[in-house]
């Protein structure tokens, strides 16, 4: 073998070993990336599970507080509505006892009053939304 051949053989061996080391390093990097991705995925799963548990707990709390609110305020609202309906009936009965021209005048006035009440309700609704 000539000295030129020996140089080529050494060069080939060096390239082969360098290539082998490079491939090994790339494999190690891929393994590291996979491990980090797996750890990140596991951390995400844990966070999602915790979020799910928190949402369940918050939903239960919201449900019970809403039920309590409805139990506490429902009868009050219902009584207020019944009182409002009774007031309306009495007003209409009073208007019915008037002459036709007087009824028309009272009904127009009462309508304006009710429209103002509806406007007030609409304004309150917009404030709460």
Keywords:
95% helix; 129 residues; mainly alpha; rod-shaped
Major β-sheet profile: none
Instruction: Give the overall shape.
Output: rod-shaped
Average pLDDT, rounded to a whole number, is: 84
Task: Look at the helices and sheets and give the structural class.
Answer: mainly alpha
Strand content: under 5%
What does it look like?
The chain has a domain at 3-73. It has two helices and no strands. The chain has helices at residues 3-96, 100-128. The longest helix has 94 residues, at 3-96. The protein is rod-shaped. 0% of the residues are buried.
Brief summary of the model shown:
With 129 residues, this protein is mainly α.
Task: Present the secondary structure layout.
Layout lengths: L2 H94 L3 H29 L1
């Amino acid at each position: 073998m000539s000295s030129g051949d020996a140089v080529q053989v050494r060069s080939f061996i060096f390239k082969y070993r360098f290539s082998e080391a490079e491939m090994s390093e790339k494999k190690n990097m891929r393994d590291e990336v996979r491990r980090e991705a797996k750890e990140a995925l596991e951390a995400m799963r844990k966070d999602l599970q915790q979020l799910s548990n928190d949402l369940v707990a918050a939903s239960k709390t919201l449900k019970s507080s809403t039920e309590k609110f409805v139990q506490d305020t429902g009868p009050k609202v219902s009584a207020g509505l019944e009182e409002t309906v009774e007031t309306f009936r009495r007003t209409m009965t009073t208007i019915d006892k008037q002459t036709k021209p007087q009824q028309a005048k009272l009904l127009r006035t009462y309508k304006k009053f009710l429209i103002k009440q509806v406007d007030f309700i609409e304004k309150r609704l917009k404030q709460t939304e």
